Amino acid sequence: MIQPLELAGYISAAAIGLSLGLIGGGGSILTVPVLVYLFHVDPLPATTYSLFIVGMTSMFGAGAHLRLGNINWKVTAMFGVPSVISVTLVRGVVVPAIPATLLTVGGFTLTKSLALLLLFAVLMVASATKMLQRQDHGHPLHTVTDGSHNYWGIALKGLMVGAITGLIGAGGGFLIIPALVLMAGLPMKQAVGTSLTIITLNASVGFASSLAKMPTLDWSLLLALSAIAAAGILAGTAMSRRISNEKLKPAFGWFVLTVGTYIIVKELVVGR
């Protein structure tokens, strides 16, 4: 029999997919908290689980956008190549090199798992803040370009997103979308399709880099959550033609802000 927390987790998986399909990002940042608090997966393996779920879900979404002609392959390569290099190095070299215990002060111990979870929470707050900012629809960069005018800026952003994906298992759509719109000049729908393609690449490479270090995986949980999230992203992609992104972003932003704040308070003030 499915427990209430597990049911909430499966519902959250659908919401993750819907968010990715509707606004091209944001949803994947909820995957680790869902795994940790609703399915009781330890934070460190949860980042690996998250990479699989996010990669599989984004792949379905990218496929839907491919059929709609919403993927800019040149910008995908400009952003994706440095991003994949970064996620491979971070997941394969940096994460294993982080000591199990980082700091002990009095009765407080900052472990590797706790540090990654807190970093995740801080990025959730930053993501929510970005979503809650008002967008200027008349910005001149909302025109189709190939991004060539800002190659190094796009590549640098790709390196940063890859590092974040490698560290915490999030797709980084909340960073990719603004970069594609404001730096590469892509229109929103093309930015969403291109973002999902980049997230698919990053998450797949990150998961593959971690697989050898995780001999046991709960494949039934991974496949179940991925299937539900994939259904959500296909539904979200279809709904995106009728629902305004600007109506969804504030509501989702407040939700992400609440979850991020909850993690910080629970881990640092209340204690697990």
Describe this structure in words.
This protein has helices at 4-23, 31-38, 43-67, 73-97, 112-132, 151-168, 173-182, 188-211, 219-239, 245-270, and strands at residues 101-105, 108-111. Helix 2 packs across helix 3 and helix 3 (43-67) packs parallel to helix 9 (219-239). The chain is mainly α and 272 residues long. It has a two-stranded antiparallel sheet with strand order 1-2. A hairpin with a 2-residue loop joins strand 1 (101-105) and strand 2 (108-111). The chain has one domain. Helices cover 73% and strands 3% of the residues.
Number of helices: 10
Q: What's the gyration radius in Å?
A: 18 Å
Shape: globular
Instruction: Trace the largest sheet across and list its strands.
Output: 1-2
Concise synopsis of the structure shown:
Helices cover 73% and strands 3% of the residues.
Lay out the secondary structure.
Layout: H1 4-23, H2 31-38, H3 43-67, H4 73-97, E1 101-105, E2 108-111, H5 112-132, H6 151-168, H7 173-182, H8 188-211, H9 219-239, H10 245-270
Antiparallel strand pairs: 1-2
Helix pairs in contact: 1-2, 1-9, 2-3, 3-6, 3-8, 3-9, 4-6, 4-8, 5-10, 6-7, 7-8
Primary descriptors:
globular, 272 residues, 10 helices, mainly alpha, two-stranded antiparallel sheet
